Known about the structure:
By secondary structure, the chain is of the alpha/beta class. The protein is built from 13 helices and 14 strands. It has two domains: about 10-45 and about 300-430, Aspartate Aminotransferase, domain 1 (Alpha-Beta Complex), CATH 3.90.1150.10; about 50-295, 3-Layer(aba) Sandwich (Aspartate Aminotransferase, domain 2). Helices cover about 40% and strands about 15% of the residues. An eight-stranded mixed β-sheet has the order 2-9-8-7-6-3-4-5, with helices on both faces. A four-stranded antiparallel β-sheet has the order 10-11-14-13. The structure holds pyridoxal-5'-phosphate (PLP).
Amino acid sequence: MRRNIVHPGADELIYEIRQIVSLGKSLEKMGVPITWENIGDPIQKGEKVAPWIKEIVTDLIQDDQSWAYTATQGYESTRDYLALKVNERGGTKITPDDILFFNGLGDAVAKIFAFMKREARILGPSPAYSTYSSAEAAHSGYEHLTYELKPENGWMPDMQEIENKIKYNDSIAGILLINPDNPTGAVFDKEILSQFVKICEKYDCILICDETYAHVNFSGNGSIHLSEVIGDKACGMALRSISKELPWPGSRCGWIEVFNRKKDHFFDRYIKSLIDAKMLEVCSTTLPQMAIPRIYSSPELLPHFQMRNDKFKKRAEMAMQILKEVPGISVVEPRGGFFLTVVFDEGVLRDKMKLEITNVQAKNFIETLLQNSSRDRRFILYLMASTGICVVPLSSFCSAKDGFRITLLEENPDVFEKTYQTLARSIRNYLKSI
Ligand SMILES: Cc1ncc(COP(=O)(O)O)c(C=O)c1O
């Protein structure tokens, strides 16, 4: 080809959460039954859609309007409804024009970075959720810039580290946080969120708060939204989605709520560019947008959130019960979201460690992949070939720590317990293998 058409950030587009699937599928063909613990899709893991939500959607299908294109920014009465909901919280107020719908937050994240000036960087957490780290790195052409969440401190960040990074790197235009967090399960309280806001005010940066799991919060302290802490100075965006909290991941429906848009000329112009970009694609999915006011105003919603949070809390407690006795790892009990992250103690993983694999074909296949694999990826390859449990290595979440992410999503309690017991046994055997 006479021109190189490859984007400079092309190598940064890595999504191990899904890439690991092709290895799992190959192992399945070789006769290893796989327990999929790599992806946060509750429906795939057996959660049943609540009948009252199905009824609302079934009813909407009869309305031809739900088959049509909708307004570029999103279905108007849904934006009215959502703006009202934000304003009822009593924090920073928005108008329906401060809401912009996307085809899921995956789409929102892609646009947020695609239309941001290349030299402007966003500082995000490590471990990082790959959609952000890959999109930010691809947009800038450099490795994603991160601040550390510290497992020894319940996965809380060191605010001084964040401030120093911003102070000494003026290419940083904003900070990202995910609350509750994927992959750590950390929940940031009002105090920490306010500290993020203060830093953004001081250094004139934007705050991007991913609230995908806002209502998957079993910390006992309730959900805190960005609107409740951002005040009237800092520019910010909250990213909301119905994928996880209803759950309806296949709806491909998420939206951003923009705060203090008019406080900064550049921010205002940037938000306009996101809307203009959406206009080129016409609009986002109509039917789920139309369903939102009906679902969110149903008296069934809060008991539904409560029931799910109780369920995840119980699972988190059971997982902790099983893993806490395992030497060589540390685990912080998740307080929100769908995931639990296991961190190997520094120096415990060695290159010659292995697990017994009875399926010879699977053993040969996995052993060809070990070369150049990070230490934690080596463990998860052995785990998958030996037990069929498919998890995601922590090194693929922009983390210098060895570990992996597993879900709290298995609906069958016996399978859930067995998976965690098998995992605990495998970690023990792996660490003892040399
Ligand atoms: C933190 C976080 N943000 C965004 C997304 C993307 O969600 P959506 O289904 O709305 O694209 C996910 C999906 O796993 C997520 O975990």
